[in-house]
Amino acid sequence: MKNTERVSYIRGLAEGLELDENKKEVKVLNAIIDLLDDLALSVSEMEDNVNDMADQLDAVDEDLGSLEDDFYDDSEDGEEENDEEDEASDNDDSGCYYEVTCPNCHETICLSDDLIQAGQMECPNCGETLEFDFGDEENGSSEPESGADSGADPEPEN
User: Residue 101 domain-assigned?
Assistant: First the structure.
């Protein structure tokens, strides 16, 4: 039995007593019953609101779970996916990747060998022109050196 039903039952019992409405005791009893009725309705509304919020929270939790599945690798066969990514990077024509730190904004940028070979580029963060010098290619060194103007220091990533 819900609280509102219980208050209605108590109201019916009080009315069944056929008490004189003008007596002080009956006025107090009726005021208490009215208060109980209001409280029972308030509690009922709060329960409904809590249930609605719980449903909404469950929906948000499900949406968040979907987003986590999309953006984080929490699967048990993550090793298989990593192997596939390694194979994809092995088949990549661009070759080695380099980390370059912009001398202006000090952000690290990962660049492919193709971008380094171009000799210069603009920093995607601040727009500073980064120049790359390949220094001593005659000695067989293919690792780029930073340009004198930019100070960008590319380092190969493993």
Answer: yes
Nearest-Å Rg of the Cα atoms of the chain is 37
Q: What is the pTM of this model?
A: 0.40
102 domain-assigned: yes
What are 74's two structure tokens? 């929490």
**What CA–CA distance (Å, rounded) separates 26 from 112?**
88
**pLDDT digits over 128-139, tens only?**
888 877 665 544
Least Cα distance to 109 among 95, 127, 83 occurs for 127
Whether residue 62 is contained in a domain is answered as yes
- Taking only the tens place, the pLDDT of each residue in 17-52 is 988 889 999 999 999 999 999 999 999 999 999 999
Q: Count of domains in the chain?
A: 2
Domain limits for position 142? 94-156
What are the structure tokens assigned to 140, written together?
A: 């067989």
Report yes or no: 75 and 81 within 8 Å, Cβ to Cβ.
Answer: yes
